[in-house]
Amino acid sequence: MLNTNDILETISMIQDENLDIRTVTMGISLLDCADADIEASCRKVYQKITTLAKDLVPVCEQIEKEFGIPIINKRISVTPIAMLAGVSGGDPVKYALTLEKAAGAVGVNFIGGFSALVHRGFSAGDQALIHAIPEALAQTEHICASVNVGSTKAGINLDAVELMGRIVREAAEITKDRECIGASKLVVLCNAPENNPFMAGAFHGVGEPDVVIHVGVSGPGVVRSALARSGKNKSITEIADLIKRTAFKITRMGQLVGTEASRRLGVPFGIVDLSLAPTPAIGDSVAHILEEIGLEQCGAAGTTAALAMLNDAVKKGGVMASSMVGGLSGAFIPVSEDAGMIDAARSGALCIEKLEAMTAVCSVGLDMIIIPGDTTPEVISGIIADEAAIGMINSKTTAVRVIPAIGKQAGEELNFGGLLGYGPIMKVNTLSPAVFVHRGGQIPAPIQALKN
Q1: How far, in Å, CA of 452 to CA of 450, rounded?
Q2: Quick one: which of 76, 108, 172, 325 is 20 to 30 A from 198 by CA?
Q3: Using CA atoms, how far apart are residues 289 and 294, in angstroms rounded to an integer?
Q4: What confidence tens digit (pLDDT) does each residue in 113-128 have?
Q5: Angstrom distance (rounded) from CA 165 to CA 421
Q6: How far apart are CA 102 and CA 47, in angstroms?
């Protein structure tokens, strides 16, 4: 039975506390679009996406109107394009332009999957796709790229790490007239999940069905408001329990929307990703949750402990509310997309080293961090290697999405607009790891990998 108080509480969450469905993402396998002729392959890709996803946006809009639940993004994830490029050869940018055309035809916000999985090494198509990433992101608006360079089972491909340092910088340079936005749509991952609905790391894994619906929910403002109402006298045990109960309510809404979208589209329902994904809007910040727990400002001593508790409580509450939880599922800490993180970075309370420590206990990594434009590719590679090591050793997903602000220095700002937000350029340690990253080879998998 529906409880009137629960209905009113949900309405308040949506109207006053920024509760929304952050994304409904349709995953589409393109394996059957592979062809030795790249032009033929691109035609197949366009045809399949526009056929399967033609109703995705209209159905989501119908659900929004009928249920009064905002669905902020409608997205598509596809099979890593490097797999198709390995079959067809040719310029992978053609695939990016095809995906861009398909995105326009069906009206989605982003398509993820201009991706390569190289944690063990490079296969046919991987090198070509990776080198094409800067140009592909410069020529498109809706395409997101990702490269997985490590895993707990495989270790870390240091050759790929070194290469990605150069690619990230090139992606920024080639779009420097647009706030270096190319780098904001590129993420380097370790332990990338196959069913992630969030960009820029979304791709449709080979273990997924031909087509599937995933949902990403978000409610930092709801959690913060619940904590604010609870007062300052509750123990941390009681705070953890309150977050669990709040996460349960948030995730139930995601389960409802996912089930309904799946039914109306005639597509299997995959997972709910219950990550707390912030926005630059005031009141929709993970940093503000941590401050509500009792920190003077995000970045203070105790930040990592508070974030660990928050992340764990969100997962414990959310997992009971959904038939299948997956993706990343935790608390995101993207700097430019979180008003509290932006403030903390501006004031100097938050530095990259503290953010790195925080990523050991949450989803998903060093995300949307703007760094000085003269940062060398080797330093970027070193940042990627450090973050991948955290993921590899802790058997969790980690990622790096840094944006070199070409021509700008620490203290200045970039503004990407929309959900990508804005933020200060953060100082980085400029001591060179060049000899390390240029050694190449494979960092062996840790002892934790030997679980069979």
Answers
A1: 6
A2: 172
A3: 9
A4: 999 999 999 998 999 9
A5: 23
A6: 8
Helix (H) or strand (E) holding 436: helix 434-438
Q: Which 3 state secondary structure label does DSSP give 149?
A: strand
Q: Which residues of 61-84 are buried (b: 16+ CB within 10 A; e: fewer)?
A: eebbeebebebbbbbbbbbbbbbb
181: tokens are 């936005």
Q: Provide the residue ranges of all domains of the chain, joining segments of one domain with +.
A: 25-190, 216-441
Tell me the one-letter amino acid at 358.
M
Report residue 123 as tokens: 């296969």
DSSP string, 99-141: HHHHHHHHT-SEEEEEEEE-SS---TTHHHHHHHHHHHHHS-S
Enter the tokens of residue 69. 């639940």
Beta-carbon contacts of residue 47 (< 8 Å; ≥ 6 apart): none
- Cβ atoms < 10 Å from Cβ of 426: 21
Q: Does pLDDT of 424 surpass 50?
A: yes
275: its two tokens = 């990550």
Q: How far apart are the first and last CA of the chain?
A: 46
Q: Of the candidates 88, 90, 106, which has an alpha carbon nearest to the alpha carbon of residue 142? A: 106
- Asked if 25-190 and 216-441 have one fold, the answer is yes
Residue 142 scores a pLDDT above 80: yes
314-325 pLDDT per residue, tens: 999 888 888 888
- The phi and psi torsions of 77 (rounded to 5 degrees) equal -120, 145
Structure tokens at 178: 């647009």
Does the domain spanning 216-441 belong to CATH 3.20.70.20? yes
CATH class of 25-190: alpha beta
pTM above 0.85, yes or no: yes
Buried/exposed 243-266: b ≥16 CB within 10 Å, e otherwise: bbebbbbbbbbbbbbbbbbbeebe
